[in-house]
Amino acid sequence: MRHYRTFPFTDFADYLNAFEDLLHTRTAQGVHTTVGLFDPEEYADFCTDTGLDPDSTSSRACYTAELATTGPALPYDGQPLADHIPALVKEAVRHATWQYATTLLARLGACTSCGQNIGQAAFTRASGLLARILDTARPGKRHLVCSVSAAPEGYFS
Which of 51, 66, 97, 103 has its C-alpha lying 20 to 30 A from 29's C-alpha? Predict the structure, then answer.
């Protein structure tokens, strides 16, 4: 981001300190804040796709607003940023996994014998089973694992 004239930080540590100060200020004011991982490459793509100038503070604001509502993001409630970042990374992995699973299900198409959308039916059945598990499980932590065989893809490249 340093190559953008309007980006005032030259040191990443200074940026993180200023960002954390801003988060603490907003929290102290009672302002709800959602935090996401800002990816400079995705930002550049967003600006290209939307026709926005990437060297603009308002374009960065548009991107972060979009990210907070549609991308992997978590509410900020005052914890140190160093503690918040690993949770954001986990959320980004969950989001990417969800997108990948959605893509796989969407590609399945319709059943040749009944015409039903196979991906939608699989999602509905899996959602129902998960809801039944959660509704009938005793209180406490649970770890569910689901393994699915699928052809390798270059999705994460």
Answer: 66
